[in-house]
Amino acid sequence: MNDTAQDKPEEVTPPELPVASSSMLGKWYVIHVQTGYEGRVKQALEQRIKSLGVEDKIFDIVVPTREIIVVKKGKKSKATEKVFPGYVLIRMILDDNSWLVVRTTEGVTGFVGAGLKPTPISEKEVQAIMKFVTQEQPKFKTKFSPGEAVKITEGPFADFLGTIESIDEKRGKVRVLVSIFDRETPVELDFLQVAKL
Predict the structure, then answer these.
(1) Among candidate residues 28, 16, 171, the one with its CA nearest the CA of residue 102
(2) CA distances (Å), 165 to each of 26, 140, 154, in order?
């Protein structure tokens, strides 16, 4: 008769944001932390939850990140980018005790919410964040900007100078206007084929 035989707490914490479902205990909240300290705050919270015995109130702490491809000095490398710098997601049952544990953790500056009251984020928002951080296509990160003068370093137009017309970060391509026979000709190139002047 008892359909919800999930009274025993589970100690399973997947590395990525757990799929939100209405059967989960607690709600997702957003805490504001000092930018750059997201990972440290997560570790400190995990230690405090154990030492203060509030595992039955605070369940998941997530720093949403995603993998991107960074182009530096003509080389592509993978990097991890924080999706929301300065913010950490936490799934918890909010009461005075659990609020105090989170609020007094070093690096935490407060909960995100209306006035002084922490406001949970909706299941829809949690699922949207989940989808975003687990997207297959890695995003290219580059330091180029439209209108910038560049030198082509590879391919048939090597050593030509041009101006960036547009950037396609998803594909890792730039459209460069190259002056050929006194005419501006658009050429699509890979990020690795151009360098800043």
Answers:
(1) 28
(2) 49, 17, 18
Which has more confidence, 169 or 28? 28
Q: pTM for this structure?
A: 0.61
Contact 118, 111 (CB under 8 A): yes
Cα distance between the two ends of the chain: 73
Beta bridge partners of 101: none
CB 38 within 8 A of CB 88: yes
Q: Are 58 and 90 in contact (CB under 8 A)?
A: yes
Q: How many CB atoms lie within 10 A of CB 101?
A: 20
CB 64 within 8 A of CB 55: no
Task: Tell me how far apart the alpha carbons of residues 8 and 137 are, in angstroms, rounded to a whole number.
Answer: 38
Q: Are strands 108-111 and 27-33 parallel, antiparallel or unpaired?
A: antiparallel
Q: What residues are paired with 188 via a beta bridge? A: 175
